[in-house]
Predict the structure.
Amino acid sequence: MSILVTGGAGYIGSHAVVELLQAGHEVVVLDNLSNGSLEALKRVEAITGKVVTFVEGDVRDRAVLDSLFAEQSIEAVIHFAGLKAVGQSVTEPLAYYDNNVGGSLVLCQAMAAAGVFKFVFSSSATVYGPDAPVPYVEDMPRGRTSNPYGTTKAMVEQLLGDLCRADERWSVALLRYFNPIGAHPSGLIGEDPQGIPNNLMPFIAQVAVGRRLELSIFGNDYPTEDGTCIRDYLHVVDLAVGHVQSLSSLATPGVHIYNLGTGQGYSVLEMARPSSARPASRCHIASLLVVMATWPRSGLMPPRRRRNLAGEPDWA
Ligand SMILES: NC(=O)c1ccc[n+]([C@@H]2O[C@H](COP(=O)([O-])OP(=O)(O)OC[C@H]3O[C@@H](n4cnc5c(N)ncnc54)[C@H](O)[C@@H]3O)[C@@H](O)[C@H]2O)c1
């Protein structure tokens, strides 16, 4: 299949491009490089020995999309492009609604005009909301969201559902991720955020290599064994494989929802343990404020989807 991957120069996108190429698909990447890099795509080519067609541009730019669809024969779109920092979404909601919702809307309009109706969307388990019981299952309704980032994911899911109800040519896979971590086993691509990381693993990695002095853990009174927050972490390669496998669901019109996680939770302290080869003082519990309220478990996924879609995690 010939696939347009928006945001393919970013963390998850670059790993997905590797898996797509290795599965025999042709890939065109559209990325505005606001948080991705051409170097990542060069390394994707080195890993796979295949060529990635790259278009530098923005998903909100209809003219760029129209010429891309006119020049390439695209059969499906995997949409990663977006902003993802929860905290920043609270302080800059306009940027998030513009990029994440506006970008998805323009993309869908351009796809419809070009006669492309297969869409895989990078959603998030955050759409279940903080009040949902665990484990989260795909049949649950979306819950209330607790920040603009989560709301943008819920809004795009709603938009895509409405499209499928209005026009049976659309087939959409909503992939609700838990917490992607890790890097390609080649060591050539991985997560290397610009500025202060938004996620736990880059923090741990930066402490491990000495780029940061210490790891601060926020929250020690969660109702968990060690008191720190539990999350479901999924290796990025398994997540990428899940995207390739989700393409087969697009043969059937309508909305297909898949949780992508492992079903296994780890606490923050357990996650920090691999770096304990470093001096213990490096791993310093600096502040015991509860910043994530009382949401100790991030909806552990039941195993059925793991077996059906993403396979057993090989790299965790
Ligand atoms: N990493 C996570 O923890 C996580 C969890 C759940 C969902 N997601 C979603 O997965 C997707 C990819 O996440 P990631 O971790 O790879 O982020 P990333 O920032 O590494 O990748 C996003 C890519 O999109 C590009 N981009 C952003 N806005 C664009 C625009 N308007 N036009 C074109 N390109 C644009 C960036 O340059 C970047 O290369 C995002 O939609 C994110 O919300 C991520």
The pocket of nicotinamide-adenine-dinucleotide is lined by residues 6-7, 9-13, 31-36, 58-60, 80-82, 84, 99, 103, 122, 124, 177, 179-180, 199 (CB under 6 Å). The radius of gyration is 19 Å. The mean pLDDT is 86. The first helix runs from residue 11 to 22.
